[in-house]
Each structure stands twice: as C-alpha cells, then as structure tokens.
Please model this.
Amino acid sequence: MCLNNINIKNLKSVYFIGIGGIGVSALALWCIENKILVYGYDREESQITKKIESKGGKIFFEHKKSINTKSIHLDIINSFNNNYVNIVVYSSAIKISHPLLKYFQSINSFCLKRSKFLGLISKNYDVIAVAGTHGKTTISTMLTHILKQNSIDCTSFLGGVSNNYNSNFILGKSKYMVVEADEFDRSFLSLAPKIILISSMDRDHSDTYSTYSDMFNTYMKFIKNNESNLSCLIIQQDLNLEINDKIRTVNYSLNSESNYNLKFKKIGNKNLIINLLKFNKKENLALKSKEFKVPIHPPHNLENFLAASVVAIEMGLKADNVLESLSSYLGVQRRFQFHINSKKQVFIEDYAHHPKEIDALVKSLRIMYEDQKITMIFQPHLFSRTKDLITEFADSLSRVDKIIILDIYAARENPIDGFGISNLFDLIKSKQKYLVANDKLVNFISNLKPKLLVSVGAGDITKFSEKIKSVL
Model:
C-alpha cells in the first residue's frame, strides 16, 4: 500500500499512536464521525481521550498497571488487525524506536505520520492553512467561529479546545477546511491549501531546523509548492516576504501601514470599540467597516482576530458581518483563559512558550492592568527550545514583577547533559524570582496570594490551575 493509493472512503480502521495529542485526537474524532473504527495508545488518560472513548474509540493506556493490561491491549490490536483496510497514524512526537511503532512495522502495517494523514483527508476540501510560529490556534479558532457565524459550515482541525464548540475538531458540511499548518517536523508540506495565512516566522524548533534559514526556506517552499493552487496568500506586514507576482498577496497589521488594519479603543474596563480598514495597493481607503462594541481582548489577540477577519473577507464575507462575530467569540482553552476575573483577583492561564509570545503577553497585561504588578508562573517547554533561546527567555521573563520558575517540561525530548533549569533561572534579572518545585507550587501561591497572576507554558502546567484557583 502507498499513500496515493489509499481511498479514505474504503478505510475501515485506524490505530493512532499518541491519540491523546491535540493534533492526533482531532484526526481520531474525524474518523469516528466518518464511521471509521478508532483504536489507539497514549501514556495517560485526559479529557480528550475520555471524549474519544465515549464516542466508541478503544484506547490502551501505558499507566494502567493491572494483571489484564497486556491481554486488553492485545485484544485491541487484534481487533484492529482483523479489519482488512487499516492504517497506523502516529504523532510527530513519537520516536521511530517506539515499541508500538516498531511492532506495527514488523507486521507490515501501513504507518504514516499525523501530517500525512491530515494531508490525505484534506485533499477533498478547499483548505485554509493558518501558519506561523505564533497565533495559529487562536487565529484558526477565530476564523472557524467567523465562518460558522456567517453560514459557512467549515470543518476545522484546531490546536486547542474551542470554548464555543467545546472541541478541537469541528465537523462541517461545506467544502472548506480550516487547519493549522504546523512548521514543526515540516508538517505543513503535506498540505495543498487554497489560502495560506502566515502570522509570524520567529526562530524555533531546532530539533527540526538546524538554522533559521532552514526554517525560513521551508516556509517559502510551502508557498512555492502551492503556487498554482493558491487563491490568496495573507501575511503579517512585518514579515516583508518577497513573493512571486503571480500569487495574489495581501498583508495585515495592527500597528503599521498595510492592506488591512484594525482600529480599537478601550471603553471602560470591559469593552472595546473596533473597526476595520482596508487599503488598496495605492494606499487609498477601499473599505471601512462600522464601529462595533465588543468584550475586551488583549491587543495580541486583536491582531489574531484581524488575521482571521482578513481571511474571511478575502473569501467574500462582508466586513461588518465579520466584526460582529467577535462579540460572541468565547476563546480557546489555555489561550489567555480567565480562571478568575474579578476586581479583587485576576488569574489567567496562557499557552505562551516562546520569548516573543511572552513579550506579547506581558505587553497586553501592562495595557489591560496598568497599575497592577504581574506575578508569572512559567514552565519552560522542551530542553532544546530553552537552551537555544535562553537569553531571549531570560530577557522576557525579567519584564514581570515577580517570576516563579518551574522545571523544564521535557515532552518528546530527553534531558541535555550539563543543562537544566538553573541555567535559565540564573540569567533572569528580576529581584523577585523564585525557583519552585512542582509539588510545592500550590502552597507557594497560597502564601503569596498575588492580585494579578498568570500561569504560562505549553506543558502540563495546566494541571495546577484548578488547585491554584482554589487557594487564591
């Protein structure tokens, strides 16, 4: 069997290795909705795996230590193998030495990465690919909501759980599919989109790209690969990419001159007035929306909303209808998510895991809470990222008033010899910095009781949120 010969309509079952991951789980949910049997493995249970199981998926968990564990998993594998047309899909975080992957390869199962399977599924849609080092999940979720609110019933694969739809996978009936075009592992090269949006291109993923030039060139390859298929390329103004004249290109920015701009002003403490401007190539005003009153959003999310709005307008939606959608947008879990939002106490959780994202987050907090001191809990994500960007991380984390540092969340990596969290901690210039063990964190926060607290990171720091909330 080869990739080009797989007919999705004939697929009977899929075994997902790493089924609890945000990207893989969305594919599993797509399969269930399309009557394809789902089997899978992950290290531990989560809300997402419980949802998959509730819909009929059969999952084996490594942490379940019981006398019947091996036989249960064997039953799952045998049930999967008994289906004539089946494939194995694995997360990019799964190493080629993983025992399950090696087992399936040994029995000649057809195995492919998550990105390849997404590319296979998306062939039957007009794909809108949201790319960039930062903002992909928020932009994709905002765009999905805008389209749904304007009667475009898109299918969406999201990198977070939408609060409006309580899922990272949203099934639609139209020809449009919204996907996050992930640069990690060069995953986005498996996509053939009609529209590409690129929000940012900052240095990251040294486990995939040996140099920034390598990453930049891969983005350009992504554009070039789809040159003949693209109806529009949308880029953040500051990127200044040199694009072939054959590709219709528009740009956007919250701060600089561009084809699309969003104006906003704060009204009290809870609302904003926004309106959108569009300029043609001669910098003449071509479109001005009505003014809309919407709930307050951090400035960095307003640029994400502008990005999503540009896609929708370029698809033919009216600007006024697009902006009106923001009033009913409820956000994404772990993206500037309020756990407490009162006059006495604010507790926010955010997924920021790159220095540029932390900078944007702190800037937004300073604008929204002008006179308050910021206390941040930060859990670094990946040894390689922490080491490669250590100076930038130290500078970014030094900008808050109090910084609490947790140990590095390894995720898919092994520790780096001679490098650890103390290397980063020592470089942070803040006078009020604390290195706290995970099991001491909740008690530490209970004693500190900061008025404005933000919990930051892409690892398992989220597991502390409810306990922190209970002691504030």
Observations:
- DSSP finds 15 helices and 22 strands in the chain.
- The domain at 10-114 is CATH 3.40.50.720 (Rossmann fold).
- The two ends are 56 Å apart (CA to CA).
